[in-house]
Amino acid sequence: MDALNLPKYPFRTKDEDGKTYILDEQRKKYVRLTPEEWVRQHMVKYLIGSKKYPSQLIVNEGIVELNGMSKRFDTVIHDRQGKPQLIAEYKAPSVKITQKTFDQIASYNFKLHVDYLLVSNGLNHYCCKVNWETNQYTFLQDIPECFF
After folding, report:
1. To the nearest whole number, what is the mean pLDDT of the chain?
2. How far is the CA of 75 from the CAs of 11, 14, 19, 58, 90, in angstroms?
3. What digits encode the pLDDT tens for the residues 63-119?
4. What is the Cα–Cα distance from 125 to 35, expressed in whole angstroms?
5. In sequence order, what are the beta bridge partners of 89?
6. Please, how many CA atoms are within 13 Å of residue 29, restricted to the half-sphere of its CB?
7. Which of 7, 24, 44, 105 is most enclosed, with most CB atoms within 10 A?
8. For residues 24 and 13, what is the distance between their CA atoms, to the nearest angstrom?
9. Using 50, 70 and 90 to split pLDDT, how confident is the model at 59?
């Protein structure tokens, strides 16, 4: 897999039927190792190890209902009361982050109502704080450390 703009971490992988799988510790199961999954696993390790988010508050690949349709989000971090605080959307390193990516994560946020949005392709990371009073968001210099 490609080198990312994140620290290197050890991962448990296995090969089965000519495909590689990586252990997703949040879901407690092996999942197919794709470039996007490579980004997710690195970012989650970074959020836990460097930004001090408790692993038990992180959910990978959850479902949110939007306009009667089930949509799958990449990662959501909840506070200790169970309220979603940050949603992350990942793309493969070969995929450029565009307005469409932000539109996708913003659509999930209409339902989840989090205060922080994180978008990453493993090379470029963008984090913004949502101001619900003005319906605007401000890009941050860095991903915030755990604040709850």
Report:
1. 94
2. 18, 23, 24, 7, 9
3. 888 788 888 899 999 999 999 999 999 999 999 999 999 988 988 898 899 999 999
4. 15
5. 119
6. 6
7. 44
8. 10
9. very high
End-to-end CA distance of the chain: 34
The C-alpha atoms of residue 148 and residue 133 are separated, in whole angstroms, by 21
Return the amino acid letter for 114. V
Which residues neighbour 74 within 8 Å (Cβ) at sequence distance 6 or greater? 36, 40, 60, 61, 87, 88, 89, 90
Percent over 70 (pLDDT), the chain: 100
Burial category of 34 from C-beta neighbours within 10 Å (exposed 0-12, middle 13-18, buried 19 and up): middle
Q: What gap in Å lies between CA 22 and CA 123, rounded to an integer?
A: 20
| pLDDT score for 45 | 98
